[in-house]
């Protein structure tokens, strides 16, 4: 059967996974009466909840006499490690662009990787049936983006289609019949070349491992594209590291190919196929699986270095161990190193003492997803504030800069620009109208300046602004950037919070807890209305007397407390604070719980 390998890349929420759903349906991958969940490719619980693609996944459809392997890639730059590896498996890309928004930062990030690999893109302008769609403008912006990213003449001469993924149609003309996705299938077959690896069927077997999985029955599973030769079940092969060191020799126990949403056992894989194999015990991502006669590994795509680091430690608060089952540092260490093995964009380092671990990654969202997965698995952790990783460059100490693209109502654009270019040391790059009453702002802002900014941004824009960010490059260190201005309210007692005490504390600031919440000494229970920290007693009840007077027994009515989610909590804390994460709770606390230690620290400060 004729073969095509293609990846679909897009910005978050541009309709990529919905389009893949329609491709699967119209290719006959599902039975007519089969019940299929919406966004079927988003199989992970977090992906469904957040509406984003986190893990790169492959699927396969048959159209006429051609098998098309489709790779669904993450749209967020924090998961760029997935994108960089997965693009090495395909021969073409479909770039999906929202006809109203145009190419966005994550589009730019993934497209630059695809163009650098020499892949010729197909552009699909999605959601053209929306009332605010401007497909012609979006198409011009895509061309400008390709030119700015250094695309060659062949890549600039890209074909394009107009589509609506939700309605299930794609046409070469804007006023086409709007019936089905046949135009997209046909364009993929005509434009994407056959795998060049198919010409190497008679060579020794080689395959570069790009993703790592596990199965409770067959153990470790590696997925990749066969670069040359053939592989049969039962064959003995070896694994080579990036530098050519022999890792292990093993017998292949299973070969699986992607068929629709599932995988099917096959007896033989040939050059060009994207398959998963089992039987190894040590081989991992970026290793070369090859015949015993091969001694040179395949080139692995380089991964961009991490930009932030977060310290994961054991939960040593007074409430530790009441909620989760996995609380020991040994168990946390094993889980983190297991994550780093399959996710090459994450680096783990032990700290002196062995009670905490420095985890380096690409962004706050990537860290947040890892922590959320661990708390759902029963872990209890203490998490530090993210720190930006600096480097020694040509200009001395350099720090990472991100390109922030912001769509905001005209009324709030002044406040946003003032915040970004003032204390946060950003530089305004572009400002232009983005539809009726909207402004698009593009700024280069140090990564340090954007940590903790998102909550403030939503407040400044009354929740209507949209902020997208992507790694841009490095710049000389810009000096100190102030963090959170407000102080916090710190509990000075252990026990359960009393409604009467919280009611009296409301004039001091915003509360993070409600009545009967468990608190302990050093726990942060609210935000102070002033810049200094304040120790308070949330357990202080009302003194009872036998005197009754009008107004003394009014019911206590508390303001609804502010509930911080995981990313907001991590971004909110200062350097001397921690986030306590358990399966059912997210608490903030001071790093120093001991009152004598806290008093000593405040004196030295």
UniProtKB/TrEMBL annotation:
Its EC number is 3.6.5.-. One of its GO terms (molecular function) is tRNA binding. GTP binds at residues 13-18, 126-129. SUPFAM superfamilies: EF-G C-terminal domain-like, P-loop containing nucleoside triphosphate hydrolases, Translation proteins. It catalyses: GTP + H2O = GDP + phosphate + H(+). GO terms for cellular component: cytosol; ribonucleoprotein complex. This is Large ribosomal subunit assembly factor BipA. GO terms for biological process: ribosomal large subunit assembly. CDD domains: BipA_III, BipA_TypA_C, BipA_TypA_II, TypA_BipA. Monomer. Belongs to the TRAFAC class translation factor GTPase superfamily. Classic translation factor GTPase family. BipA subfamily. It is an enzyme of class 3 (hydrolase). Its main location: cytoplasm. It is found in: Cytoplasm. Residues 1-196 form the Tr-type G domain. Keywords: Cytoplasm, GTP-binding, Hydrolase, Nucleotide-binding, Ribosome biogenesis, RNA-binding, rRNA-binding, tRNA-binding.
